[in-house]
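Problem 12. The chain below contains 228 residues. Write out its predicted structure in token notation.
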Amino acid sequence: MNAEASLAARARIHAALGDPARLAIVDALLLGDASPGEIAHALDLPTNLVAHHVKVLTDAGLVTRTRSEGDRRRTYLRLRPAALSTLAPPPLAEAGRVVFVCTHNSARSQLAAALWARRTHAPAASAGTDPAPRVHPRAVAVARRHGLRLDPVGTAHVDDVVRAGDLVVAVCDNAHEGFGGAARPRLHWSVPDPVRVDTDEAFEAAYAELEARVDRLAPAVAAAGAPS
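Solution.
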């Protein structure tokens, strides 16, 4: 399925789920099958309204009907879980090693790379467009508080780190806007610079945001690397 067709199919599913009654029907079918009459009784809906909603859900590919092997006059509604799984965006294409980039490679990119390595057990790297001589002490400290280790002098320039095939993620606005390397960032995370505030609270907030973003990105990269 090409990208345009995939978007159209996902839009149909979202539209079908946009009605509270249809969403309630899907919820009712998540763990088991039911006849339209049983759905009408459970949700206290008129049978003709259930029939309308079931048609919409069927046309969207969310629900199928099967004939009872007992009473052949009865049909059961069955949810298609695979249709729900298509609501998520498709995985990234050709995702290789992940490299996190910020300006000074002293805080956000370092934390993101450490979080990625722990979350995925896959290689990760970090770099800066204008690297500082050292990792910021508060970055080292917040990492230690969360069970991660940063090399205090382990900063690097993007030209020495980024290579063809890397998935480059800019974790600051300046790096995203001023990146001059051959492999431009494919993703941009606008994470506020904790160094400007220079408090433990600011570094904790940056850590929490980076952890949440890493958790969202990891499944997409894992799916992209899975064999087809």
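Discussion. The beta strands are 63-67, 75-79, 98-102, 124-128, 167-170, 187-188. Students who got a different answer should revisit the alignment rule from Section 12.3.
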